[in-house]
Amino acid sequence: MDEQGKYSSIEAYLLGQLSEGERQAFEERMAAEPELAQQVEQERKLLSGMAYFSQQQFKAELQAIHREVIEGEAVKPPPEGKKKPGLPWWLIALVALGLAALLFWWLQGPAPTPQQLYAAHYEVFELPSASRDPDNQAVQAQAYALYEQGQYQQALPLFEQLLENQTNNIPLQLAAGNCHLQLNQAQAALPYFARSLAADDLLYRDQARWYAGLTQLQLGLPEAARAYLQPLADDPSSSYQTQAQGILKALKN
After folding, report:
1. Among 21, 95, 96, 229, which residue has the fewest nearby CB atoms (within 10 Å)?
2. Residue 43, exposed/middle/buried by CB under 10 A (0-12, 13-18, 19+)?
3. Residues 18, 22, 23, 29: is their CA dihedral positive or negative?
């Protein structure tokens, strides 16, 4: 398949335009071709993220126009004897009323879906430098290398092998969970984040909550996502506070 054909297939998959058989065949290709799966993920994030952020930006711009034109002085006629160049005030007022109607319509529009919020905020977990493990040094080095190259399908079984003897290694748990997310296997990612949270490691607790919350968004479960994201939003010391607050605010709209 040429590049144009491949991207057409990716677009059709993301937009839900494939038949059930075509969708299953495409997902089997993604499982066998990590590079294709990565391209699908990048395109999905691009489409969903841009749609979400453009919506938020447009809302902000309309609100600014509303404040300046409707609540400001632009709609008032100039005092007698002080004519200003430009459009007549009544035309400005008419345009302002149209903008106000558009603003009202837009703000009443649909809120972003949980999946769109996931796509707008998700970034793959960055593994810290590998600690020396004499018994599994070669396997760990290979797993890290594959993960950093975006070859999540190949990296996942290596992380699972390492976790058999390193259950409390939280970075490995988070990496394995992210492999599943990158492979569109959100349900399978949850146990890794749950184990990471259960360990209550102060260094990785926020990251475990963050990825667990995002996973629930990807699964379309906003209430479950709130349970993980609210502690982050309430914690001024959390590096995820602002993002968590933004997601929770969007979920209320």
Report:
1. 21
2. middle
3. negative
Q: Which of 14, 17, 44 is nearest to 182 (CA)?
A: 44
What is the C-alpha to C-alpha distance for residues 33 and 1, in angstroms, rounded to an integer? 13
Express each pLDDT in 146-165 by its tens digit. Answer: 999 999 999 999 999 999 99
Q: What percent of the chain has pLDDT over 90?
A: 49
Residue 61 burial (CB count, 10 A): 11
Token pair of 41, please?
């993920």
Residue 12 buriedness (CB in 10 A; 0-12 / 13-18 / 19+): middle
pTM above 0.90, yes or no: no
* Contact (CB, 8 A) for 45 and 119: yes
- Look at residues 15, 44, 41 and name the one whose alpha carbon lies nearest to residue 153: 41
What single letter denotes the amino acid at residue 108? Q
Residue type at 71 in one-letter notation: E
Q: Are 189 and 208 in contact (CB under 8 A)?
A: no
CA 223, 227, 230, 232 torsion: positive or negative? negative
The answer to whether 223 touches 242, Cβ cutoff 8 Å, is no
The upper half-sphere exposure of residue 244, i.e. CA atoms within 13 Å in the direction of its Cβ, equals: 24
CA distance readout (Å), 235 to 45, 125, 238, 243: 27, 21, 5, 12
User: Tokens 């950093």, residue?
Assistant: 148
For residue 102, the Cα-to-chain-centroid distance in whole angstroms is 28
| Type of residue numbered 191 | P
| Measured distance CA(237)–CA(232) in Å, rounded | 9
Sort 186 into a burial class: Cβ within 10 Å, 0-12 / 13-18 / 19+.
buried
Contact 204, 173 (CB under 8 A): no
